[in-house]
Specification:
12 helices; HTH_TetR; 3-stranded antiparallel sheet; Tetracycline Repressor, domain 2; mainly alpha; 56% helix; DNA binding; HTH-type_TetR-like_transc_reg; HTH-type transcriptional repressor NicS
Length: 282
């Protein structure tokens, strides 16, 4: 004989669900259903992905412009068309939506797969195309850049929550392959790693967002103009290629930057200033 028990299930990041345990001779089976009130608001499988995309896109813009504390879920709901009830259903709370938005922003400024999957016989040309693709994804995603900058300056998430999977590893490996090819061919100088190149590219590409107002106020340079957009594109590409191909004597270091498995908070910039004596400045 089969017995059916009706109960409530509450999860940390989802609303209350109605559920049933169906008992029988072959054990018990758990089935999750929804209350009649919730069922009317649940999207169909065909529209769910589209609605989630719209909600995350709206969250990127709003968090980037207003910050985490000032952003209201009601505003995101109104701009995305997804009800506040369904935002809680899919993301749990505002921080859950913020985490998804930050990860989407990071993924969006990665170069397309066709760039990373392509091999180049001439490493200089491969590096040129890679840097050009980075510049264009930054150009097309200003709110993603603003959101990432906000998270760096006023962090809401833990470092572990920012992990985006293997995509960042694909980018690093692609740059490392180009560097090895170029160094083996004698086109690129030694003592440079992928992190060095990425730091240079990201720093220059960020400039259009981080210093737009001050650059115009001090020098009347409008980074948004077509002339300066194209000029900045050439500058980023040329700066990276000059960095890689210059005749600077080898310093003896393997790279400019080094990865640390764990952050040394005791010696971080926030806790201790790194001092350079005049004799060390070159």
């Amino acid at each position: 004989m089969r017995k059916i028990f009706i109960f409530l299930l509450r999860t940390p990041h989802a609303p209350v669900h109605w559920g049933t345990i169906v008992g029988g001779t072959k054990g018990k089976e758990f089935r999750v259903t929804h209350s009649p009130a919730d069922a009317a608001h649940l999207p169909t499988s065909e529209s769910a992905n589209g609605e989630l995309e719209l909600a995350v896109d709206a969250a990127i813009v709003r968090f980037a412009r207003d910050g985490f504390e000032q952003t209201k879920l009601e505003t995101i709901a109104a701009e995305s068309g997804m009800s506040k009830r369904m935002i809680h259903y899919h993301f749990g709370d505002k921080k859950g939506l913020y985490e998804r938005a930050v990860k989407r922003a990071v993924a969006r400024i990665a170069p397309p797969h066709e760039v990373l999957d392509r091999s180049y016989a001439v490493p200089v040309e491969g590096m040129r195309r890679f840097v050009d693709s980075i510049f264009h994804v930054f150009l097309e995603s200003p709110d993603c850049i603003r959101l990432i900058l906000r998270e760096n300056l006023d962090p809401i998430l833990d470092v572990e929550e920012l992990t985006t999977g293997d995509r960042s590893n694909d980018i690093t490996l692609h740059v490392e392959r180009l560097l090895l090819l170029g160094q083996d061919a004698g086109a690129f100088r030694p003592g440079i790693c992928a992190e060095d190149v990425l730091a240079l590219v990201v720093g220059l590409c960020d400039l259009r967002i981080t210093h737009a107002s001050t650059s115009y106020a001090m020098s009347r340079i409008d980074f948004a103009s077509q002339r300066n957009t194209e000029g900045m594109r050439r500058m980023v590409i040329d700066a990276v290629l000059a960095f890689l191909t210059s005749n600077i004597p080898h310093s003896g270091y393997d790279s400019y930057l080094a990865s640390n498995p764990e952050r040394d908070t005791a010696n971080s910039a926030a806790a201790k200033t790194y001092e350079v004596t005049r004799s060390e400045i070159y």
